[in-house]
Amino acid sequence: MFQYIYPLGYLHFIDLILFLLIITSQRSVIFLDINTISLTSLTLEDLHLSHLLPNYTIKFDRNGTVADNIYKYLSSRQGFIQHKRHIKAPKDKVNSYQQTFRELVLKGAPIVLFFSSFSPKVTNPKVTNQQLLPDMGDLLTLVHLHLLAKEVRSFYDYGFRFIIGYRGYLYQPILRWDIETVDQTFTILHELIKHAERITGVRNIIEFVDFVELTKREGDYFESQWEAEKTKVRNLYLDDDEYMERKISGWLRDFKQSINPIDFSDTKDFHSYMLNQAFSIRALKQVQFRGGEKDSGICNSLPPSVQTSVRGLDPELSIQLNPYFRYHAHQRLLGLNQLTGKWETFKWIEKAHVAEPITTNEYNYPFYYKI
User: Fold this and answer.
1) Could you give the dihedral angle defined by the CA atoms of residues 78, 79, 85 and 88, in that order, rounded to the nearest 10 degrees?
2) Which residue in 209, 111, 119, 196 sits closest to 164, CA to CA?
3) CA 16, 22, 25, 27 torsion: positive or negative?
4) What is the DSSP string of 3-27?
């Protein structure tokens, strides 16, 4: 049979082409790996958090009670554990919290902190580029709360955890998310808890509940208190009360920067609509802590819980929801600064030209960005 003999140089050329194709293919795979991560394999070191672990260590005062040490720990390290904008609480408020912790410890009961937070991201496309679902910012927040609880549990055997009132359904009429987005966010947050548990090595720390459902469980009496408080807030604002005017104006400013204006193109008297929403949310904040027939706020249907705040500027015990970056996760996108190795929140309009999306094997949207 006739066989053609290729010149040696030609064969070398073919080998070179094949080699380059293989390398190009491998580089393509490597590139995809670099820009796609798996949440199931993440560690604290991967999250750039391992060097911060000493900040979670309690300085246990052996002359104090366990209850006093827990309260002192949660009220320490402003900007990391205690909210960075925490104001000095009145003495009676401090005494009330300390007494509550002492009673729980004396009973050998688990300590449960309740606060409300978490929702889909804000809808202003200049801020989030219409990426509304939970991302690395939410995961880092959950990891932080797990690490706090893990430290308390290291010296209190009867349990410590958080119950969080999910605010997605509460803010849905204002941010105009579709109900599927609100539902999906709630589902993903539960999934991210599982990842936070694996990363931190501690379980049963966080339980999400629907904040709107809690208000319904409180019944007609709570509803009547809420309505009465709305009237009070409205009257104070219209009477030019300095404190209430500042609170309402600040809320209006923040939310007008958060919404997508297109969603309100058919809304008549937009300012009045938003003003009424502000009165309602402000009133709910007031009765959340002291409403209901038992005068214990919104938690009557839950296990015995200690109400806390994640806002600062409140007299309540206030927790820093995330010490790694400035804003809450729903308010901004999240980037990992390639020069500093630190997490930063940003508006899409500020970093769109340099933001490189990082996706996950679990979710089909950008989970964070390299910036």
Assistant:
1) -10
2) 209
3) negative
4) -----HHHHHHHHHHHHHHHHHHHH
Q: In sequence order, which ranges of 261-352 are alpha helices (DSSP H)?
A: 270-290, 348-351
Report d(CA 154, CA 58) in Å as an integer. 10
What is this structure's pTM? 0.88
By C-alpha distance, which of 252, 285, 294 is closest to 116?
Answer: 285
- Comparing 41-50, 185-194, 216-225, 350-359, the range with the smallest average pLDDT is 216-225
User: pLDDT by residue (tens digit) across 329-342?
Assistant: 999 999 999 999 99
Alpha-carbon span 301 to 213, nearest angstrom: 10
Identify any residues that bridge with 307 across adjacent strands, giving them in sequence order: 114
Long-range contacts, stretch 177-183, CB < 8 angstroms, 24+ apart? 177/120, 177/123, 177/132, 181/120, 181/132, 181/133, 182/119, 182/120
**Token pair recorded at residue 155:** 């010296």
- CA nearest 144: which of 66, 83, 186, 98? 83
pLDDT digits (tens, 9 = 90+) for 120-145: 999 999 999 999 999 999 999 999 99
Provide the pairing of β-strand 356-360 with 368-370.
Answer: antiparallel
Give the sheet arrangement for strand 368-370, strand by strand.
36-37, 356-360, 368-370, 333-336, 343-346
* Distance separating alpha carbons of residues 193 and 191, to the nearest angstrom: 5
CA nearest to 214, candidates 143, 165, 154, 283: 165
Q: Which H, E and C letters describe 178-226, residue by residue?
A: CHHHHHHHHHHHHHHHHHHHHHHCCCCCEEEEEHHHHHHHHHHHHHHHH
Number of CB atoms found within 10 A of residue 71's CB: 23
* Token duo for residue 3: 């066989």
Q: For residue 318, what are the CA distances in angstroms to 73, 111, 141, 238, 286?
A: 12, 15, 15, 30, 15
